[in-house]
Amino acid sequence: MAKIIGLTGGIGSGKTSIMKHIETLGYKVYYADDAGKKVMQQKEIIEQIVSLLGKDVLDENQDLNRKAIAEIVFSNPEKLKALNEIVHPAVAKDFDNFLKDLKENELVIKESAILFESKANENCDLVILITAPEDIRIQRVMARDNSSFEEVKKRINNQMSDLIKEKKSDYVINNLTLSDSFKEIAKILKKNKTFCC
């Protein structure tokens, strides 16, 4: 069985930049958020989402319009919960398939923005939380996505707070500068390395 390290953080925390760095170090990585996008291209998943949210979430090519979905679910917690109940099991199945190709005791880092919300942390050997002050996170996302302050704030408010995540995590990295965060993550991985690379 592979050793699984969960890596999570709210929007704008910088977790994806840290994951990309981990990947350059030669570790096996799994991006649950990317897997979510991939499973949302499956015909049966599209049908379930359209049934839940309506045909307005489809674009002209009959593919899911992620922006239209976000506008609905981030202002409707019940719809967000129902959407997650469609997508999470499909991502969990995809991750199980990913693990089949790994060696015994191999270390894999699994990135997920909603690691705790999806209860995926229960299958991790340990969890690393990436945090940053909220004002910095908002600035990062506004610059990255060309989003408004209100849009980013709404998304943050729909995520579990860092205070709750900190209590559930084994390590917390306050990501103010990537160079410092890269040093911290390298120490954590070295300490918890089984075999890699």
TrEMBL record:
It comes from Paenimyroides tangerinum. Coiled coil: none annotated. Belongs to the CoaE family. HAMAP family: Dephospho_CoA_kinase. It is found in: Cytoplasm. One of its GO terms (molecular function) is dephospho-CoA kinase activity. It is an enzyme of class 2 (transferase). This is Dephospho-CoA kinase. Pathway: Cofactor biosynthesis; coenzyme A biosynthesis; CoA from (R)-pantothenate: step 5/5. It comes from the Bacteria.
